[in-house]
Amino acid sequence: MPQLNPNPWFLIMLLTWFTFLLIIQPKVLSFLQTNSPSTKHTLPHKTTSWTWPWT
């Protein structure tokens, strides 16, 4: 399998990563999260036992 000349491909890879890091990533991170975390309730839920009809 022939090897690629890294001369043009390395520059393209670097430009792609810099574009992602400097332009695209801040725009994506600026969106608000739709499901914000909430505090967990420490009180247990009150459950009732099931009444079976044949007992």
TrEMBL record:
<keyword id="KW-0138">CF(0)</keyword>
<dbReference type="Pfam" id="PF00895">
    <property type="entry name" value="ATP-synt_8"/>
</dbReference>
<comment type="similarity">
    <text>Belongs to the ATPase protein 8 family.</text>
</comment>
<keyword id="KW-0812">Transmembrane</keyword>
<dbReference type="GO" id="GO:0015078">
    <property type="term" value="F:proton transmembrane transporter activity"/>
</dbReference>
<dbReference type="InterPro" id="IPR050635">
    <property type="entry name" value="ATPase_protein_8"/>
</dbReference>
<keyword id="KW-0472">Membrane</keyword>
<dbReference type="GO" id="GO:0031966">
    <property type="term" value="C:mitochondrial membrane"/>
</dbReference>
<dbReference type="InterPro" id="IPR001421">
    <property type="entry name" value="ATP8_metazoa"/>
</dbReference>
<feature type="transmembrane region" description="Helical">
    <location>
        <begin position="6"/>
        <end position="24"/>
    </location>
</feature>
<dbReference type="GO" id="GO:0015986">
    <property type="term" value="P:proton motive force-driven ATP synthesis"/>
</dbReference>
<dbReference type="GO" id="GO:0045259">
    <property type="term" value="C:proton-transporting ATP synthase complex"/>
</dbReference>
<keyword id="KW-0066">ATP synthesis</keyword>
<keyword id="KW-0375">Hydrogen ion transport</keyword>
<keyword id="KW-1133">Transmembrane helix</keyword>
<keyword id="KW-0496">Mitochondrion</keyword>
<keyword id="KW-0406">Ion transport</keyword>
<protein>
    <recommendedName>
        <fullName>ATP synthase complex subunit 8</fullName>
    </recommendedName>
</protein>
<keyword id="KW-0813">Transport</keyword>
